[in-house]
Specification:
The protein is an alpha+beta fold and 418 residues long. It has a single domain, classed as Deoxyribonuclease I, Chain A (4-Layer Sandwich), CATH 3.60.10. A six-stranded mixed sheet has the order 3-4-2-1-11-10, covered by helices on one side. Strands 5-6-7-8-9 form a five-stranded mixed sheet, with no helix packed on it. It is globular, with a radius of gyration of 21 Å. It starts with a helix and ends with a strand. The N terminus is likely disordered.
């Protein structure tokens, strides 16, 4: 069968890109170049306690693949999305001790001296009918996730974790798990299209407790070579799995907007954290926004402009866009929904369902975005090798050995000018 013109161009692009280029990581000592990464590693489990069981000893195939990807990428700081929250940090420690600290083939162990996890809104019961299906679902019953503050079968499912070589200034950590959606000025509250009223999908009783963040938003100050860099971590809800009210699409947009406002002092006066602290970052603050934002700037189902709130923010430097040859290859090989995309396939970070008519295809949804002040992005990559590369076995195709997302990294240099 002749190759369609667009697929021919994509295959030609593969040849031009060659094999995945992971910039050399620095030695274990301090360096002016720091690698920040985000990785939705799909280390979530269907039952509470299952992740601890899987990580309690070496040999879990998925955890091995995730750990090896991190080892080969060598980030100094990495946010892991979809890592179930376990109180006391037990899962965090087990993944370090039994997987990251153990060599995988010729991939050297990687050790992080600092770790962080905190409660998530996922699977946290609201006691209300938040999906408006007429039933308040209890734990373990059908529909429970739709009535939780964030979708999940139990508290902490699909949580987040951070591993860092640099100290986390814990006394200055800010979390925004309980920030109410209604308290964001101009919030895109979902509307019931069957009524004449505006923004009325949720009742006043529901809006009085409804939290903006589907997981949480974290501001983790890191001490990096004598300077403070704020790691701004989150994982907005997918903008799908809802109805004509678009409650997940609007929430996704505003979860992304939260960081866009937070880094701009003139727009962040409304912000409050879980300890009552007010406002966002100071004007001359170094920060890196990391996470699976579940929004592609060109394609997919998010509200148009959602990702651009970050990519076009005047305080964010999006000049370095991570790419990979594997994304281009898989775009061409899988075709279907991908053939209708407007975005550059080299920038894709997730391998989603390509089947028409509903498959979104492969998208760019995972981001590492440094501040314009105090940081200079110098390089970046998406860990997505070509199928001819032995490392491709770590990412594969569906059913994936690790995750349907790829690790995304940016290298930055600290600018010490004041």
């Amino acid at each position: 069968m002749p190759i369609p013109p667009r697929r021919f161009l994509l295959l030609a692009a593969i040849l031009g890109l060659g094999v995945i280029a992971v910039p050399a990581a620095h030695a274990d000592g301090p360096s002016s170049k720091v690698r920040f990464a985000t990785f939705n590693a799909s280390l979530n489990r269907g039952a509470e306690g299952a992740l601890v069981a899987d990580l309690s000893q070496p040999g879990n195939a998925q955890a091995d693949a995730v750990a090896e990807i991190i080892q080969r990428s060598r980030p100094d700081v990495v946010l892991v999305n979809e890592f179930d929250y376990v109180e006391g940090g037990q899962a965090l420690k087990l993944f370090q001790d039994n997987y990251l600290s153990e060599a995988h083939g010729d991939a050297k162990p990687i050790r992080y001296g600092y770790r962080y996890a905190a409660p998530s809104n996922t699977g946290l019961p609201s006691g209300l009918d938040l999906d408006n299906n007429g039933i308040v679902a209890g734990p373990g019953t059908p529909g429970y996730g739709g009535d939780a503050f964030g979708f999940g079968a139990y508290p902490g499912q699909f949580g987040m974790a951070v591993y860092s070589r640099y100290p986390i200034v814990r006394r200055e950590v800010r979390t925004f798990q309980k920030f109410l959606w209604k308290d964001m000025p101009g919030a895109l509250l979902p509307d019931d299209p069957a009524t004449a009223a505006d923004d009325d999908f949720y009742s006043p009783e529901e809006l009085a407790v409804f939290r903006l963040s589907s997981k949480s938003h974290w501001d983790l100050p890191l001490r990096v070579n004598g300077e403070t860099v704020h790691l701004l971590a989150s994982h907005p809800t997918p903008p799908v799995f809802d109805g004509p009210e678009d409650r997940n699409g609007t929430r996704n947009y505003d979860e992304i907007r939260f960081w866009s406002d937070y880094v701009r002092p003139a727009r962040s006066e409304y912000v409050y954290d879980d300890r009552g602290g007010q406002g966002g970052l100071e004007p001359r603050s170094r920060f890196v926004i990391v996470g699976d934002q579940n929004s592609d700037p060109y394609d997919g189902d998010s509200i148009p402009g959602a990702a651009q709130q970050l990519l076009e923010n005047p305080r964010i430097d999006a000049s370095v866009t991570p790419t990979s040859p594997g994304a281009v290859e898989q775009n061409a090989a899988q075709g279907l929904a991908n053939l209708n995309h407007a975005g550059p396939p080299a920038q894709d970070t997730a391998d989603f369902d390509d089947r028409l008519p509903n498959g979104p295809g492969n998208l760019r949804v995972d981001y590492v975005l440094p501040s314009r002040f105090g940081l200079k992005p110098v390089d970046g990559f998406v860990f997505w090798p070509l199928s001819s590369d032995p490392r491709f076995a770590l990412v594969g195709t569906f059913p994936f050995p690790s995750s349907d997302h790829r690790l995304v990294a940016i290298d930055v240099r600290l600018d010490r000018r004041r």
